[in-house]
Specification:
Elements lengths: L19 H6 L4 H10 L12 H12 L2 H5 L1 H8 L3 H25 L5 H9 L2 H24 L1 H10 L7 H4 L11 H16 L1 H26 L15 H12 L19 H30 L11 H10 L2 H35 L18 H17 L2 H29 L14 H15 L3 H25 L7 H10 L12 H4 L1
Helix pairs in contact: 3-12, 3-14, 3-16, 5-13, 6-13, 6-14, 6-18, 6-19, 7-8, 7-18, 8-11, 8-16, 8-17, 8-18, 8-20, 9-16, 11-16, 11-17, 12-14, 12-16, 15-16, 16-17, 18-19, 18-20
Length: about 525
């Protein structure tokens, strides 16, 4: 018997809706999620066109470059020469969560990332909290990365003796800035590309990632020619607390790996390829981050980085004395930032699509264009809002706010793995977290530890954001939830029909592959 979709259900009368506690605990069956992904929203579904390479490049594109190209100047003063240790700690914390993501991505191969995983395991209440954190993580991180574009554009123009005025290359409050125009332009260009189609966006991203990896390897080769081991003494001038604080800050640099999990409905073989893409991307990104951090500190004393937003370009220029080298790197850095903006903005729109499909946010975010196979309206709305944020908000506030939302979402995924292993051990898993339950427990604890190291201002921002989220849920989400619209009998029937293993994902059609 076919499991009905929510669109086939008649909304229950208000009197038949569950109480608040019961609604918050209602889970969405995994089989229901997969069936809805295949039927789409309003009869139009996303196109399955991604293989493991495209998924890996989405993950690498969303991750690689942020901490090195944008916030290195802010994080080195916190940890000193031990900044590479901070990157390693943050990478280890991210890896603990990445393996949990890999298991859940193979088990729940749909769009929505940790929001969908939480809905399938912990219920609507935690799913909403997770989804609201993801809105903070993705949309704000796009803006945070784009903010760094202005400085690299200036580094490019400086080779020709030109520079953008601070008024149009810095956000308000930063050196006389009024609006960061380069940041806004990059976001809007990414938005236009995503509207055209996911497959086209993936190929553009793949090409940019190849360039990005190439310029970072090139930087290491040049920086090591000026390597001075004395720059690492003392290794811990700010103590262990400084290393921990920097690790909490640069964890922002690792958020991209979960972007691949938002492509669950556009992967040709999500159960096999999503776990592979997540793990491969984590290995690539962590290796390059640590290598570049060591090369940069080896080339310049750690105090030199304070206030240097485009630190890597300046190291190249000072080391080689050749302006054209700085030009090539600066252009590559702008492209690198563009790829992060493109892939993270992509992930944001897919998470909102899943939330709209469940009725928790307005349905406009869940509409998929029959012509392009993408959520056009949602992409346009998100793109414009993120562009305004990038143009008007300083980098530091954005980066820390993103980190706390990311850490909270990662912790929930670790908990979801533990929950499903205990309650649904019979489910077929294409990837299993090693050393269970130690790994997900350590992953959740590491996320909590890094959250605790974030500043009071960040916690205040997070608290305000969550209060706004609660208001949005009670004002809209609770009344429009499709899970809550089911009667007790309908909900029990759907839950009892859930298969003992996740439904298989159909092979892609010729139209998907063309």
């Amino acid at each position: 018997m076919t499991v009905p979709t929510y669109t086939e259900q008649r909304p229950a009368a208000p009197a038949g809706r569950p109480g608040l506690a019961a609604q918050l605990l209602r889970r969405k069956p995994i089989g229901q999620m997969v069936n809805e992904a295949e039927t789409g929203h309003g009869g139009t579904r996303l196109v399955r066109s991604f293989g493991v390479m495209q998924l890996t490049m989405i993950s690498v594109g969303a991750t690689l470059g942020t901490g090195i190209l944008v916030i290195l100047g802010e994080s080195v003063p916190l940890a000193g020469p031990a900044i590479w240790i901070s990157f390693a700690i943050a990478g280890f914390a991210a890896l603990l969560s990445a393996v949990s993501y890999a298991e859940m991505a193979g088990l729940v191969p749909v769009a929505g990332s940790s929001y969908s995983y939480s809905y399938a395991t912990l219920g609507e209440g935690m799913a909403w909290i997770c989804g609201w954190c993801l809105v903070l993580e993705y949309a704000v991180s796009v803006a945070a990365v784009a903010v760094g574009a202005g400085q690299y554009v200036n580094e490019t123009l400086a080779v020709f003796g030109q520079v953008l005025p601070d008024a149009i290359s810095q956000p308000p409050g930063d050196g006389g800035g009024i609006m960061n125009i380069p940041a806004m332009v990059i976001v809007l260009l990414a938005m236009i590309l995503l509207v055209r189609g996911a497959k086209e966006s993936a190929w553009v991203n793949t090409a940019i990632v190849v360039v990005k990896v190439g310029i970072l390897i090139f930087f290491c080769a040049v920086a090591f020619t000026a390597f001075n081991a004395g720059n690492f003494e003392p290794l811990l001038p700010m103590g262990a607390a400084g290393v921990s604080a920097a690790a909490s800050s640069v964890f922002f640099s690792y958020i991209g790996f979960d972007a691949a999990s938002t492509a669950g409905e556009e992967a040709r073989n999500p159960k096999r390829d999503l776990p592979r893409a997540i793990m491969i991307s984590m290995l690539i990104v962590t290796t390059i981050y640590v290598l570049v951090a060591v090369a940069a500190v080896g080339a310049r004393p750690w105090g030199w980085f304070d206030g240097n937003e485009a630190a890597l370009v300046k190291i190249l220029e000072e080391t080689t004395g050749q302006p054209w080298i700085a030009l090539v790197f600066a252009v590559g850095a702008v492209l690198a930032i563009a790829s992060i903006v493109l892939t993270v903005l992509y992930g944001q729109t897919r998470i909102l699509l899943s939330m709209a499909r469940d009725g928790l946010i307005p349905k406009v975010f869940g509409r998929v264009s029959k012509r392009t196979g993408t959520p056009v309206a949602g992409t346009l709305i998100v793109g414009v809002l993120v562009a305004l944020t990038a143009g008007l908000v300083p980098l530091g506030a954005l980066a820390d706010a993103t980190s706390i939302g990311t850490l909270f979402a990662f912790a929930l995924v670790n908990v979801a793995v533990i929950y499903l292993r205990r309650t649904r051990p019979e489910l077929k898993r294409t990837f299993r977290v090693p050393l269970f339950p130690l790994t997900p427990i350590l992953g959740a604890l590491m996320c909590a530890y890094l959250m605790a190291n974030l500043g009071a201002d960040t916690w205040v921002t997070f608290g305000i954001w969550m209060l706004v989220g609660l208001a949005a849920y009670f004002g809209y989400g609770r009344r429009h939830s499709r899970v809550a619209a089911l009667s007790q009998e309908e909900y029990r029937e759907l839950s009892s029909r859930e298969l003992s293993s996740t439904p298989s994902v159909p092979e892609p059609s010729k139209a998907d592959l063309s």
